[in-house]
Design goal:
This protein has a single domain, classed as NAD(P)-binding Rossmann-like Domain (Rossmann fold, 3-Layer(aba) Sandwich), CATH 3.40.50. Helix content is 31%, strand content 15%. It has 8 helices and 7 strands. It is globular and about 50 Å long. The model has no long low-confidence stretch (mean pLDDT 97).
């Protein structure tokens, strides 16, 4: 890795971005460009072709261990976004998220990769109430199979640091979309600008070990004490406040609606899938 200087950001030779066809993958495909000579873009879904020599497009199913091993070879760092991003039957989560994250770390171990940024989720703590304020050390309370898979991913990250010294920042992303879509997201929203800054700092801050942080902008009503992110020098620049009038024009949510009770909102009430 090349350290940063006032004129040029830190960068790696080849950065692997999984989940590159997804919502955040498309955003980071553009915005992480200054951080790598080449970005290797991967997904099981169709991706736009490489836009020049600074991009490589490599389709891959994360459930395929051999394919993931080949995907990881030659990279210097990984931003792991790929996987099922909503609540789904366990069997789907098992393939993409649980086997997928294991394959990524095994590939990293085998090919000497020292830094991973893992897209964890607020759904690892989704069964806490919205009245509670949490830091990154609270016991996890996953709100479904998806949240369980992200909880597993955080454990895998800790294990691969303790056993093999591979460093990870696990970002418990709140809601990263162009704008907050509902009242709950007024607290959980993470702007794309803040996301990009957080991912960049997670790639290049030295000596993070396995660090768990929350991914939220500087929203007025915060549920998360994100002091752990100070280690990265992350100070969010955006806030959901400019969207308040628009969001509060939506019909009110009943006080006992999961969207108004739990941090994980509607995810807490999904399933069973029979
Ligand atoms: P997304 O669903 O738009 O993108 C995920 C991508 O992973 C998709 O393009 C999908 O094709 C790919 N994928 C799924 N199964 C795969 C497999 N077996 N092999 C290879 N690729 C596979 O999700 P989004 O919003 O872009 O999120 C990116 C990551 O961030 C996900 O891991 C998600 O769980 C996490 N996250 C996102 C949040 C958000 O607000 N957008 C909040 C919390 C976490
Ligand atoms: C997530 O983990 C999902 O990937 C995303 O689609 C949103 O549902 C987000 O959490 C959220 O909680 O708003």
């Amino acid at each position: 890795m090349t350290p940063s200087s006032p004129s040029s950001p830190a960068r790696v030779s080849r950065l692997l971005l999984t989940g590159a066809a997804g919502g955040l993958g498309k955003v980071l495909r553009e915005r992480l460009r200054p951080f790598a000579d080449v970005i290797r873009l991967s997904d099981v879904a169709e991706m736009a072709p490489a836009d020049g020599p600074h991009e490589e497009v490599v389709p891959c199913d994360l459930a395929d261990k051999k394919a993931v091993d080949a995907l990881v070879a030659g990279c210097d760092a990984i931003v792991h976004l790929g996987g099922v991003s909503v609540e789904r039957p366990f069997e789907e989560i098992l393939e993409a998220n649980i086997k997928g994250v294991f394959h990524i770390y095994e590939g990293a171990r085998r090919h000497g990769i020292r830094r991973i940024v893992f897209a964890s989720s607020n759904h690892v703590i989704g069964f806490y109430r919205q009245s509670e304020r949490l830091d990154a050390h609270v016991a996890r309370r996953p709100d479904g199979y998806y949240g369980l898979s992200k909880s597993f991913g955080e454990d895998v990250a800790q294990f691969y640091f303790d056993r093999y010294g591979i460093e990870t920042v696990s970002i418990r992303i709140g809601s990263s979309f162009p704008e907050p879509a509902n009242r709950r997201m007024m607290s959980t929203w993470l702007s794309y600008r803040d996301l990009t800054d957080l991912v960049g700092k997670s790639l290049f801050t030295p000596d993070v070990g396995h660090l768990v942080v929350y991914g939220a902008s500087a929203n007025r009503d915060q549920w998360w004490d994100n002091h752990a992110a100070a280690k990265l020098g992350f100070v969010p620049q955006d806030s959901s406040e400019p969207f308040r009038t628009k969001v509060e024009a939506q019909p009110p949510v009943a006080a006992n609606d999961p969207n108004a009770v739990y941090q994980g909102g509607a995810f807490t009430a999904q399933g069973p899938f029979e």
